[in-house]
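Many introductory courses stop at the sequence. We go one step further.
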Amino acid sequence: MKSNGGLLTGGASFVGRRRELAMARKALIHGRLLTLTGAGGVGKTRLALQIVEHVKGAYRDGVGVVELGTLETGELLEPAVASALGLRDTGPDPMNVLVDRMSGKRMLLVLDNCEHLRAICARFVDRLLRVAPRLRILVTSRQTLGVYGEQVLTVRPLAVPDPGRPLGEIARHDSVRLLEDRMADVLPGFSLAADNACRVARLAQRLEGVPLAIELAVARLRTMPLDQLIRELDKPIDVLEADTCATLPRHHSVRATTEWSFGLCSAAEQRLWARLSMFPAGADLDTAESVCSGDGIDAGDVLDLLAGLVDKSVLCCERRESGLRYRMLESLRAYGCERLTPSEKDRLRERYVDHHRRLVEDSQIDRMVPDQLERYRRLQVELPNVRVALEACLSTPELTRVGLDTASALWCYWLLAGSLIEGRYWLERGLHLVREPGRIRATALWVDSMLALRQGDLVMALPRLGECLDLARRPGNEAVLPYAIRTAGVAAFSSGDHERGLSLLQESLALHRAGENLDGVMLNLYYASAYGSVGHPERAAEFGEELLTLCEKHHARVSRAYAQLALGVARWNLGDCRRAEALVTSAALFAGEVNDRWCLTQCLEVLAWIAGAREEHGRAAGLMGAAHALWQAMGASPERLWYHAAWHEQCRERARRALGGRAFATAFRQGARLGQDRAVTYAVAG
């Protein structure tokens, strides 16, 4: 489940909206689709998240919050929702997986910022509601979806008082309460009193009770007194035409306040605001310096400019493990984009694409390096920004090769994240545009084929692989050949020919060794150990031992977990239950810690087999149930993996015979209900 991290106010307290909260709770009881509409900046997202806090206890199967504001294309809607709900390896049709997953669930799905994908979201929501009778959906959008049964709650600006009314009456208005709360943050010790109530009410009235306008205006109290702030706001200002999607005239208040706030920024701050609008996922200091400096912004001044925009509530500052990150609300980002001239956009795009190309290259996970996990997490954070770079490349003829190369370099991320649909989306677009039979196309072909194989899509994988093998044997493309042969080996296993599969993997491994390509050796050892463990367990165990030694020597923690899993499966096939259990238990602990569901699910499967071998059939059934819940969540199954299928079936049948059908079903259901964290605890308890 994904929470919204792009709020302007970050962890600021929520003020007011009791009426809307009550109406929303009632609407979700009596109906199944509720859309919160209103102008940008009126507080739809904050209200939606507050609604979630109030109603989440009513949804046995949880709440999923999906931020769509950073999604540039509707073709990625279904995989984005699946990913946010923890569904990985969804196959070629994520919608079917979503339907299967949610058809019997009592859960709430929140789709935030849908207006730019309105028609696609409407079709998506309509289908889900038809097949999932217990599902409730909460949408935020500047426009309604127009779906049958949709209930609409218009989120209006906060109520404003008459400045001439008594203190007690002024204090009861939500706009004043929000102002008082935010002013206390800026002016420690501030509270509403008889001597300032009239001015605060006047400020609320001038800002028309719009939360974003209040946030922006209050930030100015750091540098000017309240009376001056009111005078500044009272000055005439050019208000650009409001967004055509806006449904409320008071959207002009947000626009006017944004214009006013922009006008009070220095010229350099204005430039940085506009340039940072390119980043839907925000940026850290290094990125801002790299992409946004030059042409009026000195790199040495970027930190101070960022601090100035944070002080003005244009940016919010998020503290992460990797350091500080700066983001802005979608309304302010859209305004910033408007301030970029065409020539500035062209210059910025060039730096933006170059920066993210290098970021992807430097963050490749298929490397024998100690920071594999950090690389994966970095790409998770940067993905919305990388999408913008990929779109820019594939929409610009001279950059299509860069775009396809970048999409290919992300191949290991697409696999680990379970984002196979998205990976193939970018690859297929690039392959359609890049026809030259060189290294870039050849690499993209084996990557696309590998992702298709993971989806079980042999029909698409094999032709791509055939073309790749042909290109890889041409002069100039020799470096691609080991990867093409490795992918052919995985394809052979997927087609049921394990002898040919292992032979091809060994051929690829020999080529990587000859080229002293340690990263290629690492991946070949994994595939040879895992896929070869059934037909050739002794050889597979040798591959696994070598892989584990390499990973430990180079402190490659992500690869080490997969090495333990593959070697554990090989040792299991050799009858060495004790070593297999130790290896797989260690891998499960790490996978649970970093939320690698693909590795964890396989570990639970193997530990179930081991429990069954010890005649602990109740435990085996429970572990299979826990694994089943994760297989189902990812839209995958053990039957699709060569090295799992036979043992899975054997373990299940032995446990069913030993326990009886009813007891087996009970233990299986109990395991399925554990949830991921408790499943890890249960699995490693022994």
